[in-house]
Amino acid sequence: MNPKKFFAELKRRRVYSVAVAYLIGGWALAQGIAQVLPVFDIPIWVVRLIVLLIILGFPVALLLSWFFDLTRYGIVRTPDLDARSINTVRSVRDSGGDDSTEKSIAVLPFNDVSPSKDHAYFGEGIAEELLGALAKVDGLRVAARRSSFWFKDKEAELGEIASKLNVGHVLEGSVRRDGNRVRITAELIDACDGFTIWSETYEREMHGIFALQDEITHSIVDTLKLKLAISPSRPARSTDAYDAYLEGLVYSDKNAEPELRKSLEFFQQALEKDPKFSRAWTGIAKAWLWLADAYVAPLEAYPKVRDAAVRALQLDDEEAEAHVYLAEAKRILDWDLDGAEAEFNRAVEIDPNSTPSNYFSAALYAARGDRDKALAYLQRTSKIDPASLWVSNFACELYRYFGLYDEAIAAGERALQLDPTFAHYGEPSLAALYREMGRFDDAIALYQKAREFTGRPGFGLAITYARMKQREKALEALEGAIAGWGYRPGDAIAHVHVALGAHDDAIRELEHACEQRSSSLHGVGIAPEFVPLRSDKRFRSILQRIGLEPEKIFAATAT
């Protein structure tokens, strides 16, 4: 046997732990016997016999520890590390590059076992708080929230979860809330063998919930033998404000307008109870960001994004997400790309494993034609959040922009596997990729399927019909798409006009998009749909007006 594998197997079967515990316990017992038994005139040969039995028991204990394990379910046989599990662990590690799964964890949403079953938001909130705290631990890689929470209410085996998220440990649990009393059960599982390596049940009053979260986090860190990164203690908060914030957080992750507006109500309630609750302001910025463009005109929404982000940072400059949302406001309202980049860099500095920080950084660098930086941040985002429909769809789009079709197909198909209905997003980027590849029927099928579940017509179908030279169908689809949006999105309409060969109309719509401050306008420089306009001086002028360098962008996307 390979010595390295043998010692790793000793560790997995906890032989080392048993050996240390036995030596300490055996030594203490032998010392006690040697001191106590002679007092009762016990013959010295009896003392020697007991000490000898303790010594002979040492290899027996090690042998037993190899085959059996003591768990909360009693003594069970330790499973062999067969070829299948070896291959599973190897594939997980290989997919993650150089990172080992030994120091990685996914935090799943805690199940709601309350009598009334109306505190699911609280279970998700507790899990997110623990996820955020663990993300600050030096040397521990934590799967992103969207990826971990994707498994909620899904019948997935532990091995499948660990493989998809590329983690070595999984934290799951439950919450039971009854009035002001809360019981939280947390369980840390080794994804390699499926055994529980730590579990605990806590019962507290709600006013002690913050200390409880820290207690659970420290217990997990101690179990994983890691060093907790020193961070400033959190200011005391109102538990009522915190409860409202958690509920708002759940709604802010939805993409429908009613849920996003409901999240704003809860975040506002949190601020009414605790005006210094910075993360509530961050939540407001987030909600307005996702309301913008799709449901609310940009010039109405993004000033609210900026105001909320600034307020959050005035209370706590370490709010990484608030820096992200402030960056987006600078990019869209001011065309200040350097200022946006500085804010994104600050966000990544504070929280390198944040999905928004890396996601929006990738988008900015792509828009500016910094291909290498864009792809580096995209790959980081995909690694941090591998089970996110949002991230996979974005990756498909960005890879398509750079002509990396194999990578784009893989990302797009992964997005559809995560949610075949695509009901919780907008349009599938895979459909646009199919259109670029000439697979028009496949593109139309995906666009129509997305429309069936979202109830909102998109512009992709109109662009596809235009590329197929079916003008009437394209204009009909375009009218339906415009009617389904909260305002007239000039850059999206321009896509259709370019495909129809109406370049003057396309330029006019792009000018309108500039006036509107459309958030997606920075993407027209690298989008392959706009290649026919690249020789038009008016198109180049628009790109320069919004802070882009046309020649740099065109060179980055040249095939």
The percent range for strand residues is 5-15%
**What's the count of strands?**
8
Structural class of the helix and strand makeup? alpha/beta
What is the CA-atom radius of gyration, in angstroms?
A: 28 Å
Overall 3D shape: elongated
Query: N- to C-terminal separation?
Result: 51 Å
The helicity comes to 55-70%
Continuous helix count: 26
**Overall average pLDDT:** 83
Characterise this structure.
The structure is a single chain. By secondary structure, this protein is of the alpha/beta class. 61% of the residues lie in helices and 8% in strands. The protein contains 26 helices and eight strands.
Topology:
Blueprint: H1 3-12, H2 15-36, H3 44-67, E1 68-71, E2 74-77, H4 83-95, E3 104-107, E4 111-112, H5 120-134, E5 141-142, H6 145-149, H7 158-165, E6 169-178, E7 181-190, E8 196-205, H8 209-223, H9 239-252, H10 257-273, H11 278-291, H12 298-315, H13 320-334, H14 337-350, H15 355-367, H16 371-384, H17 389-401, H18 405-418, H19 429-436, H20 440-454, H21 460-467, H22 471-483, H23 490-500, H24 503-516, H25 537-545, H26 550-556
Parallel strand pairs: 3-5, 3-6, 4-6
Antiparallel strand pairs: 1-2, 6-7, 7-8
Helix pairs in contact: 2-3, 4-7, 5-8, 5-9, 9-10, 9-11, 10-11, 11-12, 11-13, 12-13, 13-14, 14-15, 15-16, 16-17, 17-18, 17-19, 19-20, 20-21, 21-22, 21-23, 23-24
Label this structure with key terms:
single chain, 559 residues, alpha/beta, six-stranded mixed β-sheet, two-stranded antiparallel ribbon, elongated
